[in-house]
Amino acid sequence: MRSILLTIAYEGGAYAGWQVQPGQRTIQGELEQALLRITGETIRVIGSGRTDAGVHALGQVAGFRTSSPMESDVFQRALNAELPDDIAVVSAAEAVADFHPIRDSESKRYRYQIDDGPVRDVFARRYAWHCRHGLDEAAMAAGAVHLLGRHDFSSFETAGAERPDSIRTVSDISVIRGGNGASSRITIEVEADGFLYNMVRAIVGTLVEVGRGAQSPDWVRQVLEACDRSQAGPTAPPQGLFLLWVKYPDAIYANR
Amino acid sequence: MRSILLTIAYEGGAYAGWQVQPGQRTIQGELEQALLRITGETIRVIGSGRTDAGVHALGQVAGFRTSSPMESDVFQRALNAELPDDIAVVSAAEAVADFHPIRDSESKRYRYQIDDGPVRDVFARRYAWHCRHGLDEAAMAAGAVHLLGRHDFSSFETAGAERPDSIRTVSDISVIRGGNGASSRITIEVEADGFLYNMVRAIVGTLVEVGRGAQSPDWVRQVLEACDRSQAGPTAPPQGLFLLWVKYPDAIYANR
């Protein structure tokens, strides 16, 4: 069996998330149905990780096995012809036979968009969290630096997922105002070797507490050290979150 | 009776256009219903011009008369609390009593967005026309300059609207690749003292014929001179079109 790696963009608003669920539209479900129509095979598509209902992706990665002889670029075009308008295969590549999208991933980067203008931006409401506070992005950035490095991120993990531990390494975190040419846009990006359930949204909800002046930047360090989800801010809503990319070692690509 | 001028942004995808139509959701209808709830008055809202189903606005202008004593900024906040998420009042101002949004307008500017990447941009599909051709934007710009100045634009007017003449003055037209940080984004902007029905969409459909190499830039001049709609390109789809702003003389504002 061959192994194909897909890089996928989607607007998550119409979906109950990545993972197949009975009676619900999901990204994984749409991909598997499209592959069934193309190959006649019942194929399981495995993502690098689940994204929740309403969360978007610019570069989610998924893999599947097939006995089809179709070239990867033909797979890409056939999938884009079959998939709904809000899911697109950005690229497709031949992977080594034992490629596994979860096990092999080295790091990921997420973006979260906030709109803090006094009047809602009607074009951002699907892609940003509208906070009316007028946030202090410098204070948010000062709070965010406490999260850099290797830590137990239990305070930023929603219960429910079963992961063996909650130690992760955040290699980059940034808070920038003015992306997309809009002075009311705040963009937060977080890069790590892995993420706990709802981790980015809990980090964003916590930084917004700092941005609106309810807490000091140093409070973020206290929240982190508490290892207690109830100490952190609320979980930010899904529509502001984008999975930007997932990094794999070169060795997972065939023919390179 | 006082006269209030509203500047309005909307995402047009969910609406049958600006103008009230029985049994349909329209921008004008939503504004009038919100004003009825706020003032108790049955108020007619007049726009600077109609926008079609699916067309967006960043700065549509509308006016209405009221006997309410409410300050204009209170009107803005009350309307934003009542309006659906895809319509926002960006500003509200007191106008002179006889302000008329159509008669008094001096000029308008529209933007049209095209995405010509090989794979559709899932986040642009509501806000751009996806042309798979790989367009030559320099040829499009060379064609566009023929439209600058005062001309009879009959070739770019969809039949149906009753306007006394089809002479308009285009004061600016631009074709630029790379807006929004995307190399596959082409942005066309047109500014004029007034626009005929579907004029921008007919201009864009014509320029795309040039961009994909089916016609030369000089053909745009021939189309213009023909004064015959059948000579021009097709009407571009609505979701790429944005009304950017409408300009009025200072004299229409009260208290300035």
Strand content of chain A: 25-35%
CATH topology-level fold name of the largest domain in chain A: Alpha-Beta Plaits
Question: What is the level 1 CATH name of the largest domain in chain A?
Answer: Alpha Beta
- How many separate domains of chain A? 2
Helix content of chain A: 10-25%
Q: How does this structure look, described?
A:
Two copies of one chain form a homodimer. The longest helix of chain A has 13 residues, at 27-39. Chain A folds into two domains: 2-104, Alpha-Beta Plaits (2-Layer Sandwich), CATH 3.30.70.580; 107-244, Pseudouridine synthase I, catalytic domain, C-terminal subdomain (Alpha-Beta Plaits), CATH 3.30.70. Helix content of chain A is 21%, strand content 28%. Chain A has helices at residues 27-39, 72-82, 137-144, 199-211, 217-226, and strands at 2-10, 46-47, 56-66, 87-95, 107-115, 129-130, 149-152, 167-177, 185-192, 241-247. Chain A contains five helices and ten strands, in the order βαββαβββαβββααβ. The model of chain A has no long low-confidence stretch (mean pLDDT 95). In chain A, strands 1, 2, 3, 4, 5, 6, 7, 8, 9 and 10 form a ten-stranded mixed beta sheet that branches. The first copy, chain A, is globular and about 60 Å long. The first copy, chain A, is of the alpha+beta class and 256 residues long. Chains A and B meet through β4 of A and β4 of B.
